[in-house]
């Protein structure tokens, strides 16, 4: 579990620096973070990351991730 947590710390630092700059890539970073939080059992953090994903726009991958997190 430590590698998932380290990755989310790194992703958080990137997002704090407004990186990546384009919305599609930022959405993917938030989606990866949501998946990793889910693996770690941090469901509140996963939900918050998915809110950020949706704020940047829905697409098939986003909606699929949302449905899969429900199961």
Taking all residues together, what is the mean pLDDT? 88
Largest sheet: none
* Radius of gyration based on Cα positions: 11 Å
What is the succession of H and E elements? HHHH
Q: Count of DSSP E strands?
A: 0
The amount of beta strand, in percent, is under 5%
Q: pLDDT below 50 for ≥5 consecutive residues: which ranges?
A: none
**Number of separate helices:** 4
Structural class determined from secondary elements: mainly alpha
Shape: flat
Q: Give the terminus-to-terminus CA distance.
A: 20 Å
Model description:
By secondary structure, the protein is an all-alpha fold. 77% of the residues lie in helices and 0% in strands. It contains four helices and no strands. The longest helix has 17 residues, at 23-39. The chain starts with a helix and ends with a helix.
Give a quick summary of the entry.
This protein has 71 residues and is an all-alpha fold. It contains 4 helices and no strands.
Please describe the topology of this protein.
Blueprint: H1 2-16, H2 23-39, H3 43-55, H4 60-69
Descriptive tags:
single chain, 71 residues, mainly alpha, 77% helix
């Amino acid at each position: 579990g430590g590698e998932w947590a380290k990755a989310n710390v790194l992703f958080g630092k990137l997002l704090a620096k407004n990186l990546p700059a384009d919305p599609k890539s930022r959405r993917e970073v938030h989606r990866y973070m949501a998946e990793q939080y889910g693996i770690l059992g941090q469901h509140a953090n996963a939900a918050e990351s998915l809110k950020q994903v949706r704020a940047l726009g829905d697409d098939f991958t986003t909606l699929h991730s949302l449905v899969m997190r429900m199961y």
